[in-house]
Specification:
Number of helices: 2
Distance between the termini: 77 Å
Low-confidence stretches: none
Largest sheet: 5 strands, antiparallel
Strand order of the largest sheet: 1-2-3-4-5
Number of strands: 14
Order of helices and strands: HEEEEEEEEEEEEHEE
Shape: elongated
CATH topology of one domain: Jelly Rolls
Helix content: 10-25%
CATH architecture of one domain: Sandwich
């Protein structure tokens, strides 16, 4: 007996079911740019004929059914771990960032000046790794009635406001207008101070300085 063509109604019903299944899959499955409860590893293979020469460059593990913590690792071409998170407590594991050691809070030992013209009383050099910087600094005067001013210069350009001696300088701002050109270059940070009264001494002491993102 010859095969008869399917009824057009049956074919439309089957097509509708397939369209619904496809629509459900598109809405439920994550996009190709997203990995849910999985892992992503980028490897570098120096010898394409020898898989043993491959090394991990980037490893990202998301939290899976076994409740393992997410892991982020970035290695350089020699296998050195240059960036990683702390899987025990969160935060950054590497690189280790320099922290400011405890400072002498006796103002008599701080950088100071009794000059009435702007004078450099402290200076440091740092590489530019980030486009912004935060600097917090305490300032004082030698006695009641003494007045003065403190300012910060970065590569010859004033960074933040000029503050009256005795107040706190706390400013976050850009240290470069062209991050691509200045990345890794030296950044010269200077503290300038001057006395604005008849006599006396003004003091300044940085207590926090770190880079910031844009």
């Amino acid at each position: 007996m010859a095969l008869l063509p399917e009824d057009i109604i049956d074919r439309l019903i089957q097509m509708e079911r397939r369209i619904q299944a496809l629509s459900t899959a598109v809405n439920v499955r994550p996009p190709l740019t997203e990995v849910v409860n999985g892992s992503l590893t980028l490897r570098r293979q120096t010898d394409m004929s020898d898989p043993a020469t491959s090394a991990n460059l980037v490893q990202i593990n998301t939290s899976g059914p076994d409740s393992t913590k997410p892991v982020l690792r970035v290695n350089d071409a020699y296998g050195h771990e240059v960036l990683s998170d702390d899987i025990l407590t969160g935060g950054l594991a590497r690189p280790w960032l320099a922290l400011l050691p405890p400072q002498d809070m006796a103002s008599a030992n701080w950088p100071s000046t009794g000059a009435t013209a702007w004078t450099t009383i402290a200076q440091s050099q740092n590489p530019i790794w980030q486009p912004k910087m935060r600097l917090r600094m305490y300032t004082r005067v030698s006695a009641a009635g003494v007045t003065g001013e403190i300012r910060v210069m970065v590569n010859g350009v004033q960074f933040g406001p000029t503050v009256n001696a005795g107040s706190v300088f706390d400013h976050t701002g850009a240290v470069t207008a062209d991050m691509q050109a200045d990345f890794g270059k030296d950044m010269n940070v200077e503290l300038h101070a001057r006395v604005t009264s008849a006599s006396g001494t003004v003091y300044a002491k940085p207590v926090m300085m770190h880079g910031r993102q844009s």
